[in-house]
Known about the structure:
Elements (H helix, E strand, L loop, with lengths): L6 E9 L4 E3 H5 L6 H8 L3 E3 L7 H15 L9 E5 L10 H9 L5 E5 L5 H14 L6 E8 L9 H4 L4 E10 L5 E9 L7 E2 L11 H5 L6 E2 L1 H22 L9 E4 L4 H11 L10 H4 L6 H11 L8 E8 L3 E8 L1
Parallel strand pairs: 4-5, 4-6, 11-12
Antiparallel strand pairs: 1-7, 2-3, 6-7, 8-13, 9-10, 12-13
Helix pairs in contact: 3-4, 8-9
Amino acid sequence: MSDKNRVHIKGVGKYLPDKILTNKDLENIVDTSDKWITTRTGIKQRRIADDNTASSDMGYKASKEAIADAGLKPEEIDLIIVASITADMFFPSTACLIQKELGIESVAAFDISAACTGFTYAVSIGEKFVKSGQYKNVLVVGTEKLSSITDWEDRNTCVLFGDGAGACILSESKDDNGILSSYLKADGNYGYLLKVPAGGSRMPATHETIDKRLHYLKMEGSELFKVAVRRMEESIKISLKKAGLTYSDIDVIVPHQANIRILKAVSRAINVPVEKFFINIQKYGNMSGASTAVALAEAVKQNFIKKGDIVVLVAFGGGLVWGANVIKW
Ligand code: COA
């Protein structure tokens, strides 16, 4: 493609499991209340995938919708990038499993691990492949079955997360719309704030790791809260600057959905009204790598995003990782 042309999002898709777990349902599982969850997080319900559904199954369904939305056939996809922290298994990659389901050949496929910022990272990586001319149509998927790593005895975390998948197609733009800038950052010094301790090469599965519940997600919530606000503000500020824009140019912010109070604090910090933030946390909770992907798909389908809008995708998550993409829609 020409150096001058941008890479844009040609289609979007999503998939959410049917089963709804409400705050009321959680009151029967742990010592919590609808009032606490609603006021402290903004979440009212979340979706939970059934035992036969893995991240690749949800990712496949979101992918099919995104490919159709882009007006493409599956065989026109030449690269698949999947962002997930709940891959079906260590390997093969979830991207390869989705490729198999899509029934497409002659395609490259790989996963990335950047937790809740995974979709933002993957969009930026995909853009580079289209920009370089190596691939024409890149399928980017954020898919998570967080219920599979949630400790249903830990009220500090189990009320926060949900399952789902979102996807988009990146292709060369025919006009001046497309990705204007990306900003990606990481700091492993704070990795301890959010992690699944066991199951990897440092602490392989044993009876003891299972007895100690070390295969479940652990989080230091209030510490993360402060960092999240700071890093999301930084991501929006620097990505806009790289695009030659300012806060007043923003039409829509599609943020990672971890906590409504985080989003309101970011809104105050950058003085952009919260009405410009697309928020669906009340329906789905935090879906890590799928959150921003699903929010983008819904924002487009609900006409919250319109042609020509300046849109900022912004996320923050375990790693720690944070970043943003600025897109002219
Ligand atoms: N129901 C009822 N009470 C609960 C509860 C629940 N589900 N979870 C925690 N509490 C209690 C705590 O035990 C604590 O009680 P104590 O004061 O008696 O010790 C009290 O509520 C306050 O806990 P705290 O952790 O200070 O609450 P908070 O206001 O920080 O809210 C989070 C907790 C997790 C909602 C919030 O910190 C958060 O959203 N953090 C960021 C999460 C995040 O971004 N995660 C992922 C990054 S992508």
